[in-house]
Amino acid sequence: MAEYIKSKKYTGVIYNLLKNKDRSYYIFYKVNGKTYRVHIGKKSEGITEAYCHQKRNDAINKLKFGDTDSIIKTKVKVDTFDVITQRYLEYFQIHNRDSLNHESRYRNHIQPFIGDKSVTDITVADLENIQREKLKKLSPQTVNHIIQLIGTIFNYNILHKYIKVENPVQRTKLLKVNNERQRYLETDEIETLFDVVKNDKQLLLFTKLALHTGARLHTLCNIKKKDINLEKQTVFLQDYKNGTFYTSFLSGDIIKLLKTRLRQIKSQDFILLFGTDPNNIDTYISKKLRPILNNLFNTELERNDRQNRVVIHSLRHTFASHLAINGTPIYTIQKLMNHKDINMTLRYAKLAPDSGKEFIENLYV
Fold this sequence. Notes:
The strands form two sheets. A four-stranded antiparallel beta sheet has the order 1-2-3-4, covered by helices on one side. It has a three-stranded antiparallel beta sheet with strand order 5-6-7. It has helices spanning 49-64, 81-95, 100-114, 124-134, 140-159, 187-197, 201-213, 217-221, 253-262, 281-297, 313-325, 330-337, 342-346, 357-361, and strands at 5-6, 13-17, 23-31, 34-42, 228-229, 234-239, 244-249. By secondary structure, it is of the alpha+beta class. It has three domains: 5-70, Integrase, DNA-binding domain (Double Stranded RNA Binding Domain), CATH 3.30.160.390; 81-171, Orthogonal Bundle (DNA polymerase, domain 1), CATH 1.10.150.130; 187-351, hpI Integrase, Chain A, CATH 1.10.443. It is built from 14 helices and seven strands. The radius of gyration is 28 Å and the shape is elongated.
């Protein structure tokens, strides 16, 4: 049986301590000689002793005026994870054209597990269960993306004060992943790729931009005409991974391609939107380019060979790798890749021509 503790400050306010150290608050008062106890809510839901005290006073005042029907009899409503996800997705759709990936990931991988649960009832154990189940068919990296999306949804709603709970993702350990892709395209492979996509204006422009800027897929798909300055040969980019903006540079035949493309569109138009759905261009390009990369470079590789398979992100890796091969200073590569952490950039240092080979060759000469 629960043991109730009286508030030291407020009359008629009690609470009991839960196993997770949360507090469940109640108020009690008398009506016609009978004592009533009403559950108000949990501390994790934002309920305080002062709030309970105010609710008790409201109830007593209503009793004095004979309004017994409106005395608080229901506990504070708590949102389900479905509710806070919908709130986040509505926000995300305003600021990001490609929201379908988030919606699909939630619907297929998250909603069946915690969609109908109160946000106050979602625990680390729930998230670990999602990890176990999803690892049966998905890669550790993909499972981590699922958990991180849950954390993002919680953080958005906490930041905007829609809910007052602890984000359980903060106490959930992500899976270990070997993220370092070894594979990048050699110059002859780049030419082969260009030759294959040359008759598809959308894919040709995308691959040229990817290999000239090193930007991620979602960043490239959100470039508008207004972001490009042909006179200065620059492009203004938004890094959706870390929420920053940066400038990259354009050169060579990409300038000619862009001049042709920019004459066809208006300032606010997306340069990679060739009649496709503006809300789904990332997915559209992925579906078109992935089989081409597989046919050209992945025919003899296992599907789970992350280090050696060529994927769309390999174009970004190729950009950085060739910068290093050409002797670009590591801090310049960091700037061009928009890496927050220099350690992300240092993995390319081994490709630099001054990586140490010549010093070893002349060590004892």
